[in-house]
Amino acid sequence: MTTLLWGGNAAFGKMAVGHVSPMVLTLSRWILALAIISAIAGPQLRRDWPLIRRNLHILLGLGAVGYTAFNGFLYSALQYTTGVNGAIEQGGIPVLIFVLNFVLFRVPVTAVQIAGFAISFFGVVLTASHGDLATLAQLNLNYGDALLLVAVLAYALYTVGLRWKPAIHWKSMMAAASLGAAIAAVPPLLYEIAQAKAIWPDHIGIGVILYTAIFPSLVSQILYIKGVEGIGANRAGLFINLVPVFGTGLSVLLNGERLEPFHFLALVLVIGGIAISEWGKPRPVETIQ
C-alpha cells in the first residue's frame, strides 16, 4: 500500500509540472497534512509530549530530511529529467539503505537477500526502460538527475534514521515530522519566490496538493513507519522497488498509456525478488529498536 500510493506521488508530481512549482507544492502538502493529523492527534500528542520534547530535534530532522528534502528534490528533478532516469535512480534507495545500515550499524545482509535485491532491481530497470534494455546506453545525466540522486540519498538517510524514532504513537510521530517538513520547506520556497520561479496552483495544482497531502504524506508515511518498525529498514527499503512498477500502472490508468507485456514481467521480477529476499533474511529478524 505504501509503494502504491508513492507511485501515485511520482505520477502526480509529473502532472504538477506547469501547474504548481516544486516548493509551493511541497510546503502546501505538508501544511495541509499537518493540519489534518493535528486535528485527530490531540490525545496522543498530550500523552507523548514528554518524549516528543526530549526528542524534538530528531523528529523535526526526520521530517525535514525524509519529507521536505526528498519531495522537494524529487519535484524539482521532474522539471528537468526523464521518467526513465527517474525510475532507475529511485531504485537506488534500497541499495543505499543496505550500504548505510551495514557501514554504520553492521546490520547483517545475506547472499540470498543480495540476490533477491538484484532480481527486484532488474525488474525496476526493465520497467524504466520500457522493456528495451538497449535504451539504457542512451541515457544522459543532467541537472535533474543530480537533484534526484540527492532525493534518493535523503530518503535512504530518513529510513535508516527511523531507528532513533522515540516510542510514541504514530499520530504523534506524523504530527512532529510534518511540522519539521513544513518548517524546512519555508526557506527553499522563499528562494523559489525570489528567483521568480514560484507557480501558484491552478485547479490541477490544487488536485495534486490534495492527493499528495492525504495519501503520500499521511497514509503512506504512516504505513512505512509501521512497516520499518515491523520488519527493519533493510527489508522495508527493498519494497521501494515497487514504486516505478505501480507508477507505470497508474500512468496507464491516469494518462491512457498502454500496458505492455514487459510490465507484467517486471512486476513478477520485482515481487519475486522481494519474496526471495524475505525468505533469505538473517535470523533472528533484525529490528530498528
TrEMBL record:
Protein name listed in UniProt: Drug/metabolite transporter (DMT)-like permease
Pfam families assigned to the protein according to its UniProt record, in alphabetical order: EamA
The organism's taxonomic lineage, starting at the top: Bacteria, Pseudomonadati, Pseudomonadota, Alphaproteobacteria, Hyphomicrobiales
Membrane topology value: Multi-pass membrane protein
Subcellular localization(s) per the UniProt record: Cell membrane
Domain EamA: 3-127, 143-276
Primary subcellular site in the record, as a coarse category: membrane
Transmembrane segments: 20-43, 55-75, 87-105, 112-131, 143-161, 173-191, 203-224, 236-256, 262-280
UniProt keyword Membrane, yes or no: yes
InterPro entries: AA-Vitamin_Transporters, EamA_dom, EmrE-like
Swiss-Prot/TrEMBL keywords: Cell membrane, Membrane, Transmembrane, Transmembrane helix
